[in-house]
Amino acid sequence: MAAGSAEETGSFDRLSSAWSPIGTATVKAARLRPGAHVLGTWCGSGPSAIPAAEQAGPHRAIDAADLAEPRSSGAAVRGLDNVRFVRGDVLDWPVPPVVTTP
C-alpha cells in the first residue's frame, strides 16, 4: 500500500472511526475543566482531541500532535478553533506555562 494512497486513507478512516467512542469515553473520564490545556499524542484525526476541545471550551487550545500529516477535518466540520493539529514529535513538545486560577 503506497503512503497517502486512497487505500491507505480508507484504512486510516476506518481505524479512526473505531477509536472515536474510546476517545470520547477517555475525555469524559478525564473530567476536563473549562480552560484545561491538553496535549493529544498520536492523534490521527482527533478521536480524543476533538471531544477534549468541545469539553475544555473555547478559551484554551488543545494541541494534537502526530508524526504523520495532520487530519483535522473533523474539527473544522464542528467549527472548533481551539484545537490545532500539528505534525511533530511529542518528545520535542514545549511545556506550556503553568496557569493558576483563583
Q: What distance lies between the first and last C-alpha atoms, to the nearest angstrom?
A: 53 Å
Q: Tally the helices: what do you get?
A: 3
The largest sheet has its strands arranged as 1-2-3
Q: Output the CATH homologous superfamily.
A: Vaccinia Virus protein VP39
Beta percentage is 5-15%
* Biggest pleated sheet: 3 strands, parallel
Q: Name the helicity range.
A: 25-40%
CATH architecture identity:
3-Layer(aba) Sandwich
CATH level 1 class label: Alpha Beta
Question: Overall pLDDT, averaged?
Answer: 76
Q: How many discrete structural domains?
A: 1
The CATH topology name reads: Rossmann fold
Structure classification: alpha/beta
Low-confidence stretches: 1-6
Task: Give the C-alpha Rg.
Answer: 14 Å
Structural shape:
globular
Order of helices and strands: HEHEHE
* Strand runs, count: 3
Protein name: Methyltransferase
Task: Kindly summarize this structure in a few lines.
The protein has 102 residues and is an alpha/beta fold.
Describe the model:
This protein is 37% helix and 14% strand. It is an alpha/beta fold. The chain has one domain (6-92): Vaccinia Virus protein VP39 (Rossmann fold, 3-Layer(aba) Sandwich), CATH 3.40.50. A 3-stranded parallel sheet has the order 1-2-3, covered by helices on one side. α2 links the parallel β1 and β2 (62-66). Mean pLDDT is 76; it is low at 1-6. It comes from Streptomyces pimonensis. InterPro entries: SAM-dependent_MTases_sf. This is Methyltransferase.
SSE inventory with pairings:
Layout: H1 6-30, E1 38-41, H2 49-56, E2 62-66, H3 73-77, E3 83-87
